[in-house]
């Protein structure tokens, strides 16, 4: 068979980079040692890699191959000694597909395998990338095991250089339980992040993990969370990011399979909401895809995802119980993620309820604190409306929460679902207007002429005029526009400006009720009282327009061209009157 097509397939479609050849060689060496130790548990376990001299040599003290196995296993694509009689991957091995050795053709033109199994004579197999191979008598080997020699392809020599091999052997093999060396230098670390050493001093493990996260992920973790899913033979550590993460960004984790690095960028290991951690895990049971760069989506992976999500949730709730100050610090950075989660998860909603300070018109308070002080959780679902109403509501002693930030209105709506007799209530501009005190009948009668004239002045601007008594007395008028009315106004404007078809479509959304924004004059305000008793109609009109625009500005409302015209008219008119009088 001509292997060139197969090599092309592997390099362009299966493996992300030729660097995986080191992983595949290490993996075969480790598997061979595992196989030998099944028969002889005390057998040596070393992998020595040598560079230089124009080739790369990988020696292992593994089980080796007989001549018959060489013919059967090395000369046939897809043949593997690591599957059982039924064709299932055998649990103790890393390999299973019978194609890994071919990845060496990504960097080599020739692969030589010199091997001895037990007392059988040594054999040498030489395979070429064009598909032909020879099998012959091997050089005598003092030790049982295998040496794989790669003769580089032209242009691929750099993949076999010492520095590259050291880097790749460390990357893929540093956590292996078997000693790996390159030109005599050890590649294996003493302790993997998920391992514990009884002799390690208190705080020593945390310092070690912090250093690991900094080196591998580039950040000093806010905290570390141990992960353990026995069903998947999974152990690991989740590092909590110390900075906000974009919930939409790809979250990739480092996954080891039986302590050999599978990939640095495995997605889908955790639930989507867990974007605030990066993990390093080792698993014995999850299955890799043939490229070994992703995990096979199966029921076990689902189970792992759920269980790891549970560990993160458990960490969060425990933090709330044991160290609320740190939980607050965590929420400062990751509240968006936790809120996203709380939209569907009661435990997280409780956490937000207890620990996340909301903006309220009585200062920042958690919802639990708010309830304790004021009972009903009254909230305004839009930040603009909150800004408009907060101070007036406060002056009437109506405490209210700003539910206008991302997820907040959803969370507030869900809050009563937590039970414990929690009640919430929406506060709209209209409701606030209804809570302002009406005038005594006599006073009401006295202001009627003023009200009629004010209404006439503001009719062209589409505003309804009211007079009420409210705090603070220093505020002459309040502009109230709730979101429903604002929508209706937008639709009406759109309908007036649009062509027939579009305007009939918009018309079907507008309600027949004539909802207009309201300007509420404050009868407690001395200026308003004076204006109400003025006989001078022109001056009243100027004052009403001026107070109207001031109320708009206080309510952070945008000025339409008609509002700006009213502002000019009132300002210039009042100036003129003032100058005329002083003349
Ligand atoms: N160093 C080695 N010592 C002993 N046998 C080996 C060695 N390298 C390869 N083999 C044999 O060659 C077979 C094919 O190896 P190859 O790497 O192509 O596939 P695999 O390891 O079985 O599976 P995968 O494609 O998943 O890596 C192995 O199943 C094994 O029997």
TrEMBL record:
Coiled coil, from the record: none
Domain (Histidine kinase/HSP90-like ATPase): give its ranges.
13-156
**What keywords tag this UniProt record?**
ATP-binding, Chaperone, Nucleotide-binding
Q: Does the keyword Membrane apply?
A: no
**What GO molecular functions are on record for this protein?**
ATP binding; ATP hydrolysis activity; ATP-dependent protein folding chaperone; unfolded protein binding
User: By its UniProt entry, which Pfam families does this protein fall under?
Assistant: HATPase_c
Q: Which family does it belong to?
A: Belongs to the heat shock protein 90 family.
Its name, as the record gives it, is: Molecular chaperone HtpG
